[in-house]
Protein 1
Amino acid sequence: LATVFDNAAQFRVQREFSVNNFEFNFLTFSSSFGNGCGSQCGSGACNTCGPNLRYSFLAGLRFLNFNESMLFSADRDDTVWGNSADELHYFSEVQNRMAGFQVGGRTDYFFLPCLSAFATAKGGVYGNDMSMHQSIYNQIGFAHVTNPVSSNLGRPYDIYGSKTGVSFLTEFSVGANWKITNCWSAYAGYQVIAATGVAEVNDQIPTQFYQLQENSQIKSDGVLILHGAFAGLSYNF
């Protein structure tokens, strides 16, 4: 490894991640004042006699799948990347499958009959089923352990690991909602999701590559933070 990585002419790092989320929630609605009339679908464009402030509560199930991978490549002689014997690649990927129960709530404030602002908060405890894969390779094949004092002498560096842990996940969002009709609404806002007890790919990088058993043990003390803007349409039955 040192022959290539320590004396490389160039390096390249590639990282990818993906997030998939699924929720199934039960909702309860109430309001601080007003009778909430006009909430059903009708001919009017806006709700003219609903309350200014409305809040709701939810409880349900959530599944969040977080995948992350990294490819660190070194090329000792060439100036053009290709799968040659002068290159060496360290690949690592992790998968977090979080499933559990969550509770939360939402508050809406109506500035106008058609325009409102909202804020939501959710949180829960999740079981996290984690898996990991690491390998070091080039076009010839996998790198092998060459440390003569290692019990893994001669074994290829192509290892897998799995682990089950507990993660805490919270979500906060704020935004605005424009009621197009009594059934259709357009909304936009900003959302932050944070999860603890997550396996991240950078935490799996070993200090001693010949210790295969230790390197296959997943480190899961990472924190995942996702944030960004969102927009969409909703239909109220």
Protein 2
Amino acid sequence: MLIELFNFFSDSFGPLRVFDYLSFRAILATLTALLISLILGPRFIDKMQEIQVGQVVRDKGPSSHFMKRGTPTMGGTLILASIFLSSLLWGDLENKYLWTALGVTTLFGLLGWIDDLFKIKLKSSDGLSGFSKIFWQSIIALAAGFYLYYTSVGSDEVSLIVPFFKEISFHLGLGFVFLAYLVIIASSNAVNLTDGLDGLATVPVMLVALTFSIICYVVGNTVFSNYLQIPFISNVGEISVFCGSIVGSCLGFLWFNAPPAKIFMGDTGSLSL
């Protein structure tokens, strides 16, 4: 959003051209998401405590987990807000990859929010059924896969490139949709299963997001992709802004989620991340 504003004034004030650099915007997205998390975090926690949105803990499990009952949950709302606002501020709003990533993340977060709400209202750790989760996740994942497939403009966009073997690449065709589906579903549920201890899921997500940010930046840069002899995919570098916002929001959330946790992300956060 801010790129258009800075580009408008860059002709009059040259230094504003620095905002054209993807790496600079990715850093700003990270810092912005971090600040949003840190500023809104205490207010969000107080509000959750005020309306008594507390964590429901399974009766079966370590006794140390029972003391976590009543700790505010649905902290993923804070994470999602930080990611969304930061990406909108520093991302290119005409980029299809950015909107796809934001759309999937937000919709998975909404699904997790409904699951958390069910747990709180029913005072049970069960929430939505496993079938309901997988069904709606599948709808969202397939929609994203089909959208990316039908909007692709080159074979590299729907190909499987084998890491470390620069000349091995498989054009998947419609198989890309199936692969995208598996990756999205598996990733979402992997984080959901990992989330269980204070700060446990947040740190791996930050490391993975940072890695993807670097990969997307390199693949979306003609100089680096040519040097490394990997396919160049136009506009995919914008995802580094999105990944940077994930790193910043998770880092800010970790400040409140580190042991002893003051808030949990709930399925709102774990499913979306």
Protein 3
Amino acid sequence: MFGKRLSELKTADIERLIKEEVQEGTEIEFKEALPAQRGKRDPWLEGGERVGDFARNKILEEIIAFANAYGGVLVIGISETAEKPARAAGIVPLPECAELVERMRLQCRDCIEPQIPTLEVAGIPTEENGAGVVIIRVPKSRMAPHRHTATRECYYRRADRSEKMTMREIQDLTLNI
């Protein structure tokens, strides 16, 4: 599925993730919804016109971590199993996924430095009302390390987690490019 161009992906490709119970790992991450603080929902999911700062920051952390490591794919709108590492379990469509893609693309441009030039973001509608899944394909970056402009942190992908980089890791990454 991820060998295809994102523009070629269809609902059947997303359904195959669930059928094959694809496992999260170094190069793939699933999010059921836009992240939110405990007990809250992101404004976008409530019909708002913007993605909340908390969701934006968490999504950008994942993107930066992939770019600083091996590259990878972030799929938003997929529920996951409780086991570790988690597996794809079901589709949880996000409202107005095409518009959400544009918002995420702008957030990536404005909040990651240096910019990731070949980042791909696509929406796959799974419902007639335009709700669907958002897929972000992040290449391994030759311009690493990247950082989040709001938090000024660099992140790295370790197994199925994105974690803050230490100063030593940032120095090593800078020297090895």
